[in-house]
Q: What sequence folds into this?
C-alpha cells in the first residue's frame, strides 16, 4: 500500500500475487533481530559452540606460513584458531587485517531512523488499528523522504517503523551503527500526513543510522593465508545497505550457510584456501545484486516530483485484475531474483562440480577449530 508523506493520500498497492509467491517455495516472514540472535545462539550452543560475551578484541594477528591466526582480547588473553571468521559488522576491525588498510568510507546521502512501537498503542486509533490487524505493508513516499512499517513477531505485539531521509552527503547526520538514539522529532521533518505523524509519535525515540558508501570492486574477503575470512556486513557493508536494508540480515545468514556447507567438506587444511575462495565467488555477486535492489527501492520511494514519480504512482494505482501476463512475468522475475535462491544448494552445486576434484595432499583428515569473532555494530 503506497501513501504520501505529505498528505497521507492512498495512492494504491502492489500485490504479490499468490501464484508468484508460491513459486518461491516459502513464506515471507518478519522476525525481530533480537529473536533471530537468540535463535542462532541456541542453535550454536546446542551444537557445542562456546560463546563468550563481553570479550572485546584488542588486536588481530594473521598467521605466517602454517601458523594459526590469533586474536588478543582486551584483558590480554590470546586465542588461536585454524580459521578466524570476522562477522563484526560494517566497521569491522577484522576487515582491516584482511585488506591491509583502514576503512575507506564516505557518506552515501541516506539516513535511516528506525524504531519499535508497542502495537497496543495503535489499536485504540481507528486509522492505525488496521496496520496491525492486516498483512498490508504500508509505504509512505515523498520527495527525498519515505517511510515503511510492518508488524514483527507472530503475535503482532510490536510494529516496526523506518524513515528514510536523503540529504546532501556533506551534511548527513548520524553514525554507521545502531547505537545512536535521537528524539522522534528528528525524523518527522517534512512529514505532514496526520496518520504517519501520530504513528511516529507513539515511540519517543528512534535509532539513527547513516548509510556509508564504499568502493568494493577490488575487495577480497579472505586474507593471504586463507585462514581469516569475512562474513555479513564485515564483507559487504554497502552492498547490503546496512542502514535500513530489507535483506541485510538475510545476506549474513546466507553467507553463513554457504560457508558452513563448504567447510562440512573439509578433510585437510590444504583445502581451506580453495574453499574460502569459493565462498567469496559464490556470495559476492549475489550480495551485490541484492544490495543494489535494496538501494534502488530506497531511492524509488523517495523520488522528487516528476515523470519517474508519476510513473511509479500510476503503476501502484493499477488493480490486481488489471495485470496482464507481461506484468505478472516481470513481478516473478523481480521476486525470484531475491527469493528463489538456496544458499545450501549453491554451495552443494559448487562442491559437486568443482570442489570434490581438489586434490588432498595429506593422507589423514584434519581436525579443524573455528574461532568466530562476532560483534554487533
A:
Amino acid at each position: 500500500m503506497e501513501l504520501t508523506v505529505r498528505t497521507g493520500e492512498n495512492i494504491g498497492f502492489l500485490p504479490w500475487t499468490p501464484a508468484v509467491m508460491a513459486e518461491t517455495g516459502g513464506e515471507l516472514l518478519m522476525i525481530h533481530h533480537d529473536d533471530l540472535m537468540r535463535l542462532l545462539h541456541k542453535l550454536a550452543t546446542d551444537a557445542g559452540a562456546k560463546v563468550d560475551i563481553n570479550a572485546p578484541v584488542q588486536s588481530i594477528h594473521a598467521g605466517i606460513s602454517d601458523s594459526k591466526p590469533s586474536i588478543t582480547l582486551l584483558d590480554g588473553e590470546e586465542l588461536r584458531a585454524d580459521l578466524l571468521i570476522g562477522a563484526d559488522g560494517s566497521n569491522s576491525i577484522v576487515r582491516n587485517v584482511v585488506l591491509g588498510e583502514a576503512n575507506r568510507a564516505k557518506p552515501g546521502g541516506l539516513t535511516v531512523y528506525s524504531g519499535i512501537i508497542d502495537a497496543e498503542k495503535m489499536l485504540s486509533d481507528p486509522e492505525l488499528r488496521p496496520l496491525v490487524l492486516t498483512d498490508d505493508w504500508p509505504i509512505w513516499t515523498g520527495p527525498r523522504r519515505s517511510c515503511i512499517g510492518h508488524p514483527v513477531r507472530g503475535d503482532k505485539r510490536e510494529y516496526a517503523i523506518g524513515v528514510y531521509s536523503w540529504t546532501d552527503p556533506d551534511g548527513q547526520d548520524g553514525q554507521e551503527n545502531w547505537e545512536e538514539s535521537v528524539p522522534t522529532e528528528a525524523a518527522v521533518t517534512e512529514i505532514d500526513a496526520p496518520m504517519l505523524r501520530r504513528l511516529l509519535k507513539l515511540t519517543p525515540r528512534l535509532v539513527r543510522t547513516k548509510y556509508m558508501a564504499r568502493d568494493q570492486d577490488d575487495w577480497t574477503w579472505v586474507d593471504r593465508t586463507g585462514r581469516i575470512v569475512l562474513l555479513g556486513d564485515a564483507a559487504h557493508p554497502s552492498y547490503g545497505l546496512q542502514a535500513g536494508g530489507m535483506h541485510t540480515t538475510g545476506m549474513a545468514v546466507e553467507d553463513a550457510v554457504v560457508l558452513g556447507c563448504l567447510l562440512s567438506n573439509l578433510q585437510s587444511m590444504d583445502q581451506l584456501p580453495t574453499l574460502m575462495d569459493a565462498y567469496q565467488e559464490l556470495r559476492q555477486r549475489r550480495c551485490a545484486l541484492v544490495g543494489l535492489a535494496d538501494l534502488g527501492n530506497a531511492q524509488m520511494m523517495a523520488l522528487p516530483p516528476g515523470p519517474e514519480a508519476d510513473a511509479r504512482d500510476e503503476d501502484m494505482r493499477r488493480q490486481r485484475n488489471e495485470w496482464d501476463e507481461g506484468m505478472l512475468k516481470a513481478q516473478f522475475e523481480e521476486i525470484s531474483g531475491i527469493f528463489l535462491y538456496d544458499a545450501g544448494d549453491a554451495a552443494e552445486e559448487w562442491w559437486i562440480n568443482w570442489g570434490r576434484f581438489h586434490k588432498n595432499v595429506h593422507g589423514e583428515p584434519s581436525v579443524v577449530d573455528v574461532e568466530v569473532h562476532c560483534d554487533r555494530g
Observations:
- Confidence is low (pLDDT under 50) at residues 360-368, 372-377.
- The first strand starts at residue 2 and ends at 4.
- The domain at 33-105+215-296+339-374 is CATH 3.50.50.60 (FAD/NAD(P)-binding domain).
